[in-house]
Fold each of these.
Amino acid sequence: MNRRDLIAALAASAATGVPLAAQAQPSTIKYVVPFPPGGLTDVMARIAGQKLGDALKVSVVVENKPGGNAQIGAEAVAKGPADGSQILAVTLTHAANVTLFPHAPYDFVRDLRPVALLAGSPMLVVVPETSPVKTFADLVALSKQKTLNAGSSGNGTPPHLTMALFNDLNGSRMTHVPYKGGAPSMTDLIGGQLDVIFSNFPESIAHVKGGRLRALALCSAGRHAQVPEVPTTAEAGMPGLLVESWTAAMAPARMPDALVDRYARELIKALYSPEIEERAKALGFRPSPMGGEAFASFLTEEIARWGRIIKAANISVG
C-alpha cells in the first residue's frame, strides 16, 4: 500500500460513521497540554496542532496546564466547552491515572472521548557505562540474584510502570527510587548511584550516544534508527516487556461526532506527512496515527493493562 492509500485508509478508520455535516467550527482551538512547556508531549502537540490549524484554517493555541500528575489540564478539558474549541494532549500517564487516582475530580473514560493516537516513544533500558551488566540477559539474571535499584522520574510514571512490568515478567524485586523528573535520575544513574533505569527514550539517548550510559534493550516491536545496534526486548528474550510512551488527542465527551471525525482525519494526515514524520523521528517518536474505534480499543487495553500492573505492584502516588 502506498503512502496516499495508507493515509486514506487511516483517515477512514477515524470516522465514527456519522456524515460530516455543516458543523459550526470554532475560530480558535485550544490544545491543552497537562505538562510543562518543552517536554515531548508539548513539542508533539505544537507540531500536530500547527498542522491541524493549517488544515482547518483556524488558530490552534497550545496552553500548558501542568500539575496533579497531569490531572489539572485533563479536568479542565473534561469539564470545559464541547464545541470543538479545545482538545487535550494525553499520554500513557492518563491511562495509568485511571487506577492511580480512583477518586479523581473527573472520569477519564466517561468525560473524555478519543480523537487520535499520534505517536509513541519506546522505553530504553539503560545502565551506567561502568556497570558490569553488559546485556539485557545479564540484567535479567542479576536482578534475580540481588535487589537492584531502579530510578524513575516519579511514582506512577512510565519508567516506574515499565520497571514494575519487568519485575512482574521476571519474578524479580527491584527497588524503585523515584525522582522529581527524568534529569536528576539520569545524573545519579551516570554517577553510579542507581543500577538501571527503564528510561523515556529522549531522556537517555544523548547519554547513550555520549558514552555515559549503555543501552541494553529497546521496549519496542522494532529497532530504532537512532540506535540500530540495540536489540528489542523480544530479541533479548522478554517479548512481554513492550512499552511505548505514547501521546494522543482527546476531547470532551459531548463534542459532536462530525468535529471529532474531522480533527482525527487531519491529525492522522499530518502525522503521515514526510515533514512531520521526520520531525517526530528526530525527537525519538515513531508516528503511529490511529483514530476511531481502533484508538478507543487501544486506550481501553492500556487502561486495563496498567491497572493490573499497578495493583500487582501495589503502586501508589500518595
Note: DSSP finds twelve helices and ten strands in the chain.
Amino acid sequence: MKTLLTSLSLVALLAAPLAAPLAAQDPAPTPEDNAIVVTAQRSGAPMWIVETKVGTVILVGEIRAIPKSTPWEPARLEEATAQADRVILGARPRISPGDIFRLLFSGGKLTRLPKNTVAADYLDAAQAARLAAFGTAHKEDYSRQSFLLTSFEMLRKELRFNRDTARDASDVVKDAAEKAKVPTTRAASLRGEDVIDNLFEAPPTDHIPCLLAAMDAVEAGPQVVESRAAEWRRFRIPAVMANPLETALGRCWPWADETLGSELRTIWVSRIAEASAAKGTTLAVVPLRVLAEEGGVLDQLDARGFDIAGPPWK
C-alpha cells in the first residue's frame, strides 16, 4: 500500500498560430479600464495582462504549496474568475483503474533503483558521499531508493514545504469557475498510461539533477519555503525563480523531463496562442516557471510584439 500511495503521489505532481499583436490604430482597453483585470490584480498574485484586438488574456503565475502565512487574497481571484468569459487550467493525467493496478503491482519500479544496483553506481564519489551524509543526518537509507522519490522525500520531510498550505491558485479558480458556470478547459488531458510509461522508462541518471537540487534546497534551510512565497507575493519573479526550492522543483520530473516537460510547455504556448484570438477575457492559471523561465511563454509573446503588462520576469 505504501508503494501504491507513493507512486500515485508522484503521478499527481502533474502538477495555432499566435494572434497578431495590437495594431496602433486599433487599441484595446488598457488594464486600468478592465474591471476584471483590476479585481484579479487585487488578489496579490503575480499576473500578466496580454491585450489583443479582440480581448484580454490574464496569465496568473502560479507556484504550488503556498504557506497559509502568505498574505494574498484568493477571494479577489474568485471574483475575477466569475466575471471571465473562459478559464484555462493546467494539464492533468487521466488515471484509469488499469493504471492503478499497474502501479500497485509494478510501483516498485518508481520507488527503487534497478535490481542489484545502488546509488553509488550512478553517482560520482563526491555525490555518493554527500547523499550518504544526508542519509545519516536524516536517519534514512537512500542507497536503494529511487533518486526521484528521495528528492521529494527530502523536500517534504526536511523542508515541510507542502505542510500548512493555503489553496493553490488553480484550486481557487477551478472552484470559482464551477460555481459561476464559467466555461473551463484544461491545457491538456494526458493519458495516465503515457505518464506512467514516461516515469518507468526514465533511467536513474535522469533524476540526478533533481537529487542534487533537492539537497541544495535542504542545505539552504526551511526558510526558503517562506521566502519563495514572499517573493512571489512581492512580484519579485527572478528571485522566485532563483529560490533553491523552486529550482529543485523545476529540475525534477515532470518539468525536467525532455519529453513530458517539453510537451507541457508546448501545450501552454498553444493554449495561450488560441486564447489571444478569442473575444472577451480569458483567465489562465499557468505554472510560473513556464511563464518566466528563459525562452518561456512570456519571452515568446514578447518576441512577437505582444503588449504585455505585468511585473518584470527577467
Note: The longest strand covers residues 55-62.
Amino acid sequence: MARTARELPAVDRRHLDALEEEAIFILREVAGAFERPALLFSGGKDSCVVLRLAHKAFRERRADGGFDGRLPFPLLHVDTGHNFPEVIEFRDSEVARHGDELIVAHLEESIRRGSVRLRDPLESRNPHQSVTLLEAIEQHRFDCLIGGARRDEEKARAKERIFSHRDAFGQWQPKEQRAELWSLFNTRLRPGEHFRAFPISNWTELDVWMYIARENIPLPSLYYSHRREVVPRGGLMVPVTELTPPRAGETVELADVRFRTVGDMSCTCPVPSLAADAAQVVEETLTVTLSERGATRMDDRSSQAAMERRKKEGYF
C-alpha cells in the first residue's frame, strides 16, 4: 500500500517522550532558579519547538490543542533588519495567536547608537547580533536566556553545557564550563553575569523534525519546498535577494528548494528539496550527512573556528 503524504516513515520515535520530558525539566529549572529569564524566539524551527515545550511546561492544554495561562517569562528576538519577511510575519502571527509577550531588540538601533559599525551596508549582520543581544540583556536585566541551540549543529555548540555560563562581559569561556553530573546544574551567578540554557541541546535535527511532525507545529513556509531564484556559489545555492544579488558572470537558476535554517538573509542558503510537509522532511533528513549550518550558512564557512569566536563574543 502506498504511503500517504503525511504519514511518517518507519522510524522509532519512542525516544521523543524522553527528550520532551528532559526539556520540560530544564525549562522548569530555569523558571525556578532565575529571576528574569527570557526565551529567544526568532520564528525558526528550533525556537518553535522550544516554545511548544515551554507551553507544555507552564500552560494548560485545552481540548482544541491550544493553551490557557501565560508563560513566566517573555520572548526575545534580535531583529537584524535582514530577516526573511516570511519569518517576521510568522513570528508576529504566532506571538499574537498564543498571547505571549514579545520583546524585539533591533540591530538598526545599535547601528544608530554607534555600538555596531558596518563596513558595508550589505554585509552580513549575523555576527553583529551579539552586540544587540548583550545590550538587550543589560537593558532588561535578563539573568538567563533560553535558546534552541543543539550540540549536533556545529563543533562549538557541541562543547557547550545545557546551562552555559556567561561572564560579566557576556562572553562564553569554553574551558570554564561547569560540570553537569546527574542533571544537577550549577546556576550560581555573580553580579553582571548570566546564563544561556538550551533545553533541546541533546536533540538532533531529525529529532526536531519528528517532533514537529508529531506535534503538528506550524513553521514559516520557507522550511518547505518552494520555487526560488538561486545562484550556485562556493558549493551553496545563494538565494537571489536585494541583499544577495547575482555577481557578474553568474547565472540565475529557478530551483525547487527549502531552507533547513532561517537566519540572516545575507548569509543563509536553501538546499534542493521537494519536501512539502514535516513528514517528507523527516524522510529527507534521514539521508543527510552534513549539519544544517554546514550545508546552508555562508558565515560559518569563513573559518573552522567562526562559530566559537562569535560565541566567545556573546553570540547565541
Note: The two ends are 45 Å apart (CA to CA).
